[in-house]
Prior knowledge:
mainly alpha, 9 helices
Amino acid sequence: MLRSLSTRCLRRHALRRWYTSSSVLPSNAYTHGDPSNPAVSTTPDVPTDQRRALDSALRVDQAGEIAATWIYKGQILILGRDKKLEPMLQEMLQQEEKHLAVMNKLQLQHNVRPTILTEVAKVAGFGLGAVTALMGKESAMACTEAVETVIGEHYDDQLKEMAQLGQDHPSVPLLQDVIREFRDDELEHLDTAVKNFAQRAPAHALLSTLVGAGCKVAIELCKRV
Length: 225
């Protein structure tokens, strides 16, 4: 699974370079677009079950981006003096901060109640980032690898679920494109972690299993509360 995700990440990295050079990143509609555009200012009228699924998806995504932002802040606190890692961690943090800013706008656009676990996500994310960084550079990268593996799979699952929403309302195809963009960013982070020796971390398999399991539990909790 990891090899498959990493291979897809390389292909999508090339696509992302095209996106960036063309200034057509889907998320730009929220950060640099017209705020009166119906695609970013209105929400679709869908059946109750689909509305419930949309609410759950955006609540989890917003919480996940909060946690991811604080994971990188924790890692930077410990590893910020490393001349090689610091700029790489800062770049990933900046991407996560953009993701969060867009998710915050999506939460308001679609009238989604945020999770009550927001503060928990901040503390847990910062703690996970700092503790794994204290264990060493490789362990910090193993943490990123495990988190981004789960998030990449999670975004893939969401895209399958969102196919049920149809394409009639302009916000739906845009939302799907934003999710694809963010998924590709997360898989790029995964690839970066692997290239920086994540799999050389002590007890790599155990650490990855624990972090991945924690992420899956957090996803299920945030869906509900």
